[in-house]
Specification:
Elements: H1 9-33, H2 42-69, H3 72-82, H4 87-99, H5 102-116, H6 129-149, H7 168-186
Membrane topology: Multi-pass membrane protein
InterPro entries: ABC/ECF_trnsptr_transmembrane
Organism: Enterococcus saccharolyticus 30_1
Length: about 190
């Protein structure tokens, strides 16, 4: 599936390395904690570990391909048009995703500010988190005020530059995945 999507080789190798680390950990967890009655066979334990590890690859690859090929704006607009997500929630989600990268930078600024004032705290202290929460609330209030001042009304009918619709190809792809999953589930191990 990854071959169908253009991913740079370096990014693909990094993805496969991270998935492999997770899969190996899950494999050994399944191997060590497998129990089938009192006399669990080693072959069954290995098969169980491999089944668990393969799930990491399946779901990890699926999620990675989705993340690599879909922009946040496309996802939010599609949720609005297909699942009728209210615009207030849609724009709130979009704002949260766009503000998330600013939080670590602001956290470091707060740490530097506390150090410059001579305030000491442990690594598990809540002292830097309280100003961070206040700053985040202030950001959200400013964003809400800016949206209202520009005429954003949550219940008003909206138009979109790009209309996303579910086509026959999408339905066939979904049914194909469902059928493949059903067939693989019913196959004997």
């Amino acid at each position: 599936m990854l071959l169908l999507v253009y991913l740079p080789l370096k990014k693909l190798l990094k993805l496969l390395f991270l998935l492999s680390l997770s899969a190996v950990g899950i494999f050994f967890t399944g191997l060590l904690f497998f129990q089938e009655g009192q006399n669990g066979s080693t072959t069954a334990a290995y098969a169980y570990g491999i089944r668990l590890a393969s799930r990491v690859y399946c779901f990890g690859t699926l999620g990675s391909v989705f993340a690599a090929t879909t922009s946040l704006t496309e996802l939010i607009y599609s949720l609005q048009q297909q699942l009728r997500l209210p615009p207030v929630f849609a724009y709130g989600l979009m704002a949260a995703f766009h503000m998330a990268p600013m939080i670590p930078k602001e956290y470091r600024n707060i740490q530097f500010s506390l150090k410059s004032r001579g305030i000491t705290y442990s690594k598990l202290s809540l002292k830097p988190l309280i100003p961070l929460m206040v700053k985040s609330i202030r950001w959200s209030e400013l964003l809400a005020a800016a949206m209202e001042s520009r005429g954003f009304v949550g219940d008003a009918p909206r138009t979109y530059a790009v209309n996303y619709s579910v086509t026959l190809k999408d339905w066939l792809f979904g049914l194909g995945l469902l059928g493949a999953g059903l067939i693989l589930t019913l196959l004997p191990v």
